[in-house]
Amino acid sequence: MWMLATIVAFFIARAISRKLNTPIMNPLLISIGILIPILTYFKVPFETYYAENAWLSFALQPAVVALAYPLYEQLPQIKSNWRIVMLACSVGSVMSMLTSTLIAVALHTDLSLIASLLGKSVTTPIAMEVSRNLGGEPAIAAILVLLVGLFGAILAYPIYNMLNITHPVARGLTMGTVSHALGTATCVEKNAEDGAFSSLALVLCGVITSIIAPSFFAFALWLNA
Q1: Tens digits of residue pLDDT in 23-51
Q2: Which of 106, 135, 142, 204 is the most buried if burial means most Cβ atoms within 10 Å?
């Protein structure tokens, strides 16, 4: 029942988004606005809702894999820009975790929350696993990923337009580095080249974050000592 409700809510949200044609009316954001009041009214526990949507959650992983197709289409472009790609993804991943760590430590945040924060800019399955391995809360990590992705999907292109950023490498890499799958989906809708570089950044940043997140958590422990 709740999986059907989720699907119906999404199609309604997508129709509204296309009709209004404004970045703030993101389909995911509208879907959340539809579903949360309904679930609250019927007092549906999160565990029940999540269990009934297990197939949709499972579909997220092959959907991310499917983003490899734009990569194949833009392979020559990617090969010619591989140095920029690696530099942007490495710096983006490091800065995302460094700023999260420093701000969290400055605010005397609990270590379990810091562990959950470190994966906020990568796709949900990776962020949850990073959080789990560091002793954080995977559910919090998933919420943070959702929030970061929504901010990117809603605000990125207006910012690009305001700053006159038009190059697909710049737009795609920044979106994929910061706003993972949600941002990448927005890129794919806007421009195939943007989507290809965003997909690549999503994958590379996920790998980089998985490798170096424990070092940043150790850094947070050292700062708290």
Answers
A1: 777 888 888 889 888 888 888 887 788 78
A2: 204
